[in-house]
């Protein structure tokens, strides 16, 4: 059974996704909605990391329950810098690039959840399937957010 | 006939009535000193503009001047009553400092000029930018105070003519969440309730709505019910001890930022106790299973901790709401300007759907407005949405609008949601918006984080046009200032929160060269040469009445159907509620009767958004969720506020208004009675917080956040401990600073607020900053000048009561029929 591997992979994906969201938030402090919402929904990935670590033991994997990517001093500096840089037009392009990155990370994570759910179903692991059913919708919401924000931001950046 | 000091008694004399009875008439009148009704040359029909209630009134004219007002007894909204702002606010029209000539900036100074020069400057800059960058450089920031005809014309010019997506109103600050919450639950904007629901409700729940101060006449109606037989029970959710809280059976005062947690717990109780109208829900709603699952995580015990409200109070409120036979609810800024605004307001809609309390007398639901014509900003597309509640992401709706406007559909921007106000300022900050035309509003005082807003507005690369009656703080930063006619100086219609349309006729000429906003817009369009696809002028009307006729065609078959209305029909009697058409020639008291909504996928105004992320749903997702257009029960998880109190900033700062002022005091400070009632800014703290720090009533305090500092005298009030309140009205035009603080501390509450908004409605959050409070100087027995009649009522002795004195009298004329006037 390779469910342990799938859990480990997802644990890594969710950690990456949380990190990508927090890094984007830090880089776009002057784009206030991105700054705040990215932090709010990074929390979902961090909760998923904890939940995956908790269930990992049942499948023979030992995972760190503490999510990576909590903001530290370096990120605070990045926030201040982004605040000051916010007055020029370059951040618009950077925002599009970051949203695209988050979209891809979240989409990959979404696929990982699908894989895990398929495996859990096949192996009749009820608790694991319930975890996937509970968490996957959050990931889909992260995907939709990145997609929606990208769509909304693209025009002004590209035509001006 | 009574004479009452209406500053001291803002709601006037009680006329008690019982459930199901007609609210008795009481005609309120105030005329300039020394005049009687015999001195008035003529009375001109209009309605009130310094709040959203839409009370019918007549303007008294003597010679060429407005000399007073009188409530219209025949009007369904107010039955003759007027509030203090209506009784005294008209004096602003006669102010000697009205703008009477256009101004243009020359060598850094605003100087007087003529209309041709001013308009050519505006038009030439527009043309240059359209050539250089295109429509994405142009933006319009309008208001909630123009007339319907003006908004519709502006929307046509901006969306159809110029083709910019950057159009919004200051309604973003006050009613964006009302619209968003209605769209989430019912697929379309449009208020389900009617003011007459107060007449028969047995429970009236006010969620973050200090109605006593925001809609004084509507509150008067509730006070009269409370004074009569079988009075309703009032539920109040507000961190301040407002007049509503004092009248309430249960007053819940949650921590700022926790409204959604509280609502989830209330709904949890309603479901857990079986108070759901299962039949109604299964027939007329989707989403119940998901809502129930989500709410399972929110027992009252959890909410009691997070909101810091006793669990028994949550249960008591839920019981009253759950067992009400006729529940009327209203929601306002306490929810709309707080964290998770739309999610929280939507739960009030859910409450009404769960209880099957829609479309029946007494079962009204109002997602309130703050400004008189905010409803029209939304309806006409001047807040960025497409006119007549068309759906920007429904291709057929865009094509239909293009047909009405005789344009190519590609000309109307609909590639993404309209740019909201905060985003427009962001684009101006980064330099991609280079032209902003502000009308009848004052962002230099009313937007959050004023230091930032002033920097944006003052940029050389931003061409700022301001159209106003007065040289506001914002106008002082403009490149061109256009003098506008005000209420009473032009004709038009507007619609209040319960869909009542009023005609407001021109009573007097505007001063000097000031012009009606409609004329200015049409002039702009003609000078710019905007045309339809056949080469004819884009704007096909020249005056308000023909503009109204154009609007009627645009609304045909849409929820806000105006086709049965006309100026003639609106003249003489009461205001009339839309939809008004062949089917409903006398208007429509309540919508959503028998569980019929405007939510069908091909008809709805919006497919909705994710309540936490704000991401829009696609047409396909919406069709799958709600194929037959039922009400949508939408759940949302609680997310903690973004700025929490800390050791350094231990208070939660909220801002709000007072009964005697409107917006940034542009008009109300020019009415002596109103200005005297609330002459200067104050800060409210609870008695326990004041005692802990040794503060006394009247001490001069500094309130600060990471964004700025304000000084204000302390009022020790009934506000919840841990919370500080500042009124947002006070800016700088009547201080030495003119447009900004004179010195290191300001007096505008928005020096302190943070830039953050609800991701769904995009409404800025004014009730969520962490703040520090320190004493600058002792008051030495001089109390703060905050009103004593309102939520700022002192809890300590020795503060003289707020009185208007001579000149603040109004007469009250009671109907001679039954009604129990005393």
Verbal overview:
The complex is a heterodimer of chains A (160) and B (822). With 160 residues, chain A is mostly helical. Chain A is 81% helix and 0% strand. Chain A is built from 5 helices and no strands. The longest helix of chain A has 34 residues, at 126-159. The radius of gyration of chain A is 17 Å and the shape is elongated. Chain B has 822 residues and is α/β, with parallel strands linked by helices. Chain B contains 26 helices and 29 strands. In chain B, the strands form 6 sheets. Chain B has a 7-stranded mixed beta sheet with strand order 7-6-18-17-16-8-9, with helices on both faces. Chain B has a 6-stranded antiparallel beta sheet with strand order 1-29-2-5-4-3. In chain B, helix 3 (148-162) crosses helix 22 (544-555). The longest helix of chain B is centred in the first third of the chain and has 18 residues, at 115-132. At the A-B interface, helix 2 and helix 5 of A face helix 18 of B.
Write the SSE topology.
The complex is a heterodimer of chains A (160) and B (822).
Chain A: H1 3-27, H2 32-56, H3 73-85, H4 90-122, H5 126-159
Chain B: E1 2-5, E2 26-31, E3 42-47, E4 56-62, E5 65-71, H1 84-89, E6 103-106, E7 109-112, H2 115-132, E8 138-142, H3 148-162, E9 167-169, H4 171-174, H5 176-186, E10 203-207, H6 211-214, H7 216-226, E11 233-237, H8 243-247, E12 250-252, H9 259-272, H10 278-284, E13 285-286, H11 288-295, H12 300-307, H13 311-323, E14 327-331, H14 333-336, H15 341-354, E15 365-367, H16 374-379, H17 395-405, H18 421-430, E16 435-439, H19 443-446, H20 450-458, E17 463-468, E18 480-483, E19 492-495, E20 500-504, H21 517-528, H22 544-555, H23 567-570, E21 576-577, H24 619-625, E22 631-632, E23 651-656, H25 672-677, E24 682-686, H26 687-693, E25 700-705, E26 708-717, E27 723-727, E28 769-777, E29 809-814
Parallel strand pairs in B: 8-9, 8-16, 10-11, 10-14, 11-12, 13-22, 14-15, 16-17, 17-18, 23-27, 24-26
Antiparallel strand pairs in B: 1-29, 2-5, 2-29, 3-4, 4-5, 6-7, 6-18, 19-20, 20-21, 23-28, 25-26, 25-28
Helix pairs in contact in B: 2-21, 3-21, 3-22, 5-15, 9-12, 9-13, 9-15, 18-20
């Amino acid at each position: 059974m390779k469910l342990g591997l799938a859990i480990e992979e997802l644990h890594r994906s969710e950690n990456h996704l949380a990190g990508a969201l927090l890094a984007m938030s830090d880089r776009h402090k002057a784009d206030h909605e991105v700054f705040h919402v990215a932090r709010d929904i990074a929390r979902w990935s961090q909760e998923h990391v904890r939940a995956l670590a908790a269930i990992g033991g049942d499948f023979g994997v030992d995972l760190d329950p503490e999510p990576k990517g909590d903001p530290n001093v370096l990120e605070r500096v990045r926030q201040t810098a982004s605040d000051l840089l916010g007055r020029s037009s370059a951040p618009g392009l950077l925002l599009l690039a970051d949203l695209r990155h988050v979209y891809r990370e979240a989409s990959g994570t979404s696929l990982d959840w699908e894989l895990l759910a398929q495996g859990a179903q096949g192996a009749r692991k009820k608790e694991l399937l319930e975890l996937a059913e509970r968490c996957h919708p959050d990931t889909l919401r992260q995907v939709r957010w990145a997609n929606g924000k990208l769509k909304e931001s693209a025009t002004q950046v590209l035509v001006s | 006939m009574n004479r009452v000091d209406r500053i001291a008694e803002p709601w006037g004399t009680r006329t008690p009535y019982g459930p199901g009875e007609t609210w008795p008439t009481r005609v309120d009148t105030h005329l300039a000193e020394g005049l009687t009704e015999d001195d008035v040359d003529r009375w001109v029909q209009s309605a009130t503009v310094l709040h959203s209630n839409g009370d019918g009134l007549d303007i008294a004219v003597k010679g060429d001047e407005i000399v007073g007002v009188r409530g219209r007894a025949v009007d369904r909204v107010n039955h003759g009553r007027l509030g203090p702002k209506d009784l005294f606010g008209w004096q602003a029209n006669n102010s000697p400092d009205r703008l009477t000539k256009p101004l243009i900036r020359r060598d850094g100074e605003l100087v007087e000029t003529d209309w041709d020069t001013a308009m050519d400057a505006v038009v030439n800059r527009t043309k240059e930018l359209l050539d250089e960058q295109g429509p994405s450089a142009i933006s319009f920031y309008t208001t909630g105070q123009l007339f319907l005809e003006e908004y519709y014309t502006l929307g046509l010019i901006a969306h159809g003519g110029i083709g910019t997506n950057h159009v919004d109103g200051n309604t973003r600050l006050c009613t964006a969440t009302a619209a968003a919450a209605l769209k989430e639950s019912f697929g379309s904007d449009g208020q389900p309730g009617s003011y007459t629901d107060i007449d028969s409700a047995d429970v009236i729940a006010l969620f973050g709505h200090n109605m006593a101060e925001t809609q004084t006449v509507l509150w008067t109606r509730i006070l009269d019910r409370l004074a009569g037989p079988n009075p309703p029970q009032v539920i109040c959710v507000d961190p301040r001890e407002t007049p509503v809280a004092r009248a309430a059976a249960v007053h819940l005062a949650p921590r700022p930022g926790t409204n959604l947690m509280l609502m989830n717990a209330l709904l949890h109780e309603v479901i857990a106790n079986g108070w759901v109208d299962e039949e109604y829900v299964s027939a007329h709603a989707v989403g119940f299973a998901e809502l129930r699952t989500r709410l399972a995580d929110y027992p009252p015990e959890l909410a009691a901790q997070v909101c810091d409200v006793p669990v028994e109070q949550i249960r008591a409120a839920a019981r009253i709401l759950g067992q009400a036979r006729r529940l009327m609810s209203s929601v306002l800024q306490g929810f709309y300007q707080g964290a998770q605004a739309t999610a929280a307001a939507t739960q009030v809609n859910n409450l009404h759907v769960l209880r099957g309390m829609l479309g029946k007398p007494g079962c009204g639901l109002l997602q309130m407005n703050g400004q008189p014509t905010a409803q029209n900003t939304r309806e006409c597309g001047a807040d960025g949405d497409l006119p007549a509640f068309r759906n920007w992401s429904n291709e057929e709706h865009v094509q239909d609008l293009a047909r009405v406007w005789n344009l190519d559909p590609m000309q109307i921007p609909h590639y993404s949601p309209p740019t909201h106000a905060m985003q427009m300022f962001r684009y101006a900050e980064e330099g991609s918006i280079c032209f902003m035309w502000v009308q009848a509003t004052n962002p230099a005082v009313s937007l959050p984080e004023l230091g930032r807003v002033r920097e944006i507005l003052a940029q050389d690369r931003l061409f700022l046009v301001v159209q106003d009656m007065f040289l506001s703080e914002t106008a002082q930063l403009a490149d061109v200032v256009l003098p506008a006619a005000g209420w009473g100086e032009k004709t038009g219609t507007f619609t209040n929160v319960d869909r009542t349309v009023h005609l407001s006729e021109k009573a007097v000429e505007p001063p000097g060269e000031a012009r009606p906003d409609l004329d200015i817009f049409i002039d702009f369009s003609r000078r710019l040469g905007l045309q339809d696809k056949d080469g004819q002028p884009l704007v096909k009307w020249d005056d308000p009445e023909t503009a109204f006729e154009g609007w009627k065609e645009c609304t045909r078959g849409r929820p806000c159907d105006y086709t049965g209305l006309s100026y003639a029909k609106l003249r003489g009697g009461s205001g009339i509620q839309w939809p008004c058409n062949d089917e409903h020639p006398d208007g429509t008291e309540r919508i959503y009767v028998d569980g019929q909504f405007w939510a069908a996928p091909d008809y709805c105004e919006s497919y909705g958004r994710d309540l936490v992320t704000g991401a829009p749903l696609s047409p396909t997702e919406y069709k799958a969720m709600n194929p037959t257009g039922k009400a949508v029960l939408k759940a949302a998880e609680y997310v903690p506020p973004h700025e929490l109190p800390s050791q350094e900033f231990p208070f939660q700062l909220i801002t709000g208004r007072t009964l005697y002022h409107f917006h940034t005091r542009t008009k109300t400070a020019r009415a002596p009675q109103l200005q005297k009632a609330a002459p200067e800014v104050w800060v409210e703290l609870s008695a326990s917080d004041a005692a802990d720090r040794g503060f006394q009533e009247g001490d001069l305090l500094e309130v600060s956040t990471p964004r700025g500092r304000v000084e204000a005298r302390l009022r020790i009030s009934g506000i919840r401990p841990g919370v500080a309140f500042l009124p947002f009205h006070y800016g700088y035009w009547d201080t030495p600073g003119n447009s900004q603080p004179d010195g290191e501390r300001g007096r505008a509450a928005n020096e302190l607020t943070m830039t953050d908004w609800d991701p769904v409605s995009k409404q800025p959050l004014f009730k969520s900053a962490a703040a520090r409070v320190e004493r600058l100087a002792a008051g030495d027995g001089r109390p703060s000048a905050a009103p004593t009649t309102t939520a700022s009522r002192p809890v300590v002795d020795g503060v003289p009561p707020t009185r208007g004195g001579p000149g603040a009298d109004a007469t009250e004329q009671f109907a001679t029929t039954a009604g129990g006037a005393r």
